[in-house]
Amino acid sequence: MAANLHEFPDAATLAAALADEVAARLAAAIRERGSASIAVSGGSTPKRFFETLSTCDIDWGKVTVTLVDERFVPADNPRSNHLLVATHLLKDRAAAAKFIPLYYDCSSIYEAAVIATEKAAGIGKPFDVVILGMGTDGHTASFFPHGNNLGQALDLSGPRGVLTMEAEGAGEERLTFSFASLSDARFLALHIEGQGKKDVLDKAKAGSDETEMPIRAVLNRAQSPLEIYWAP
Ligand SMILES: O=C1O[C@H](COP(=O)(O)O)[C@@H](O)[C@H](O)[C@H]1O
Questions:
Q1: Which tens digit of pLDDT belongs to each residue from 110-138?
Q2: 40, 56, 69, 108 — which has fewest CB within 10 A?
Q3: CA 201 to centroid of ligand 1, rounded, Å
Q4: Cα–Cα distance between 23 and 50 in angstroms, integer?
Q5: Distance, CA 25 to ligand 1 centroid (Å)?
Q6: Which pTM value belongs to this model?
Q7: What residues does each domain of the chain span?
Q8: Distance (Å, whole) CA 31 – CA 19
Q9: Residue 1, pLDDT above cutoff 90
Q10: Could you give the 3-state DSSP secondary structure of residue 142?
């Protein structure tokens, strides 16, 4: 499927443009189907976009927000993606949105993945909006290079839902939506910033080994067109 690159002069301009586009997509979903869904990434890149999106004038009470991936840590942990979204997105007008976490306080991450999959089944399919990020190692969501569950996570014929992932570069154990859950989003975007990430993207485009750079699965096999938002 095609990938379209949208370049912006700076991060603030990118955040405004991406927030406008996402708000329009969510509003259209509400008009057409009565509700809307969005799965967002963690990390440092999306903060400004979250802040801008939280002020957009849409019917947030009809929007379900979830994460594309999460660390197996509670929401008060500074490394929690839930905490990031609670702090920067679920406020202002967006405080009315419903949030579905991926982390659950279970004795094992496998139990948490089962619960997260059950909860996610209630969200409309496909997602209206998915915003991916990318690490400098070429991971996206928690599809990490050489991850222990990478084959299953990237299998487009596999089930929708949340899987576990462990990888050397991942730090904590991770929970991640499968590629099958994300790749057919009505609006599928990759949000990256900085020349370093652009270089990583170019390297990913130049090769095909998904085990080395899982972002290649999104570039080459996503079912929806990939809209790449980049600023220096
Ligand atoms: O580990 C993660 O990192 C990536 C990228 O983060 P960034 O700090 O380089 O923006 C993110 O997309 C993913 O959701 C997160 O869990």
A1: 999 999 999 999 998 999 999 999 999 99
A2: 108
A3: 14
A4: 11
A5: 23
A6: 0.98
A7: 3-231
A8: 18
A9: no
A10: coil
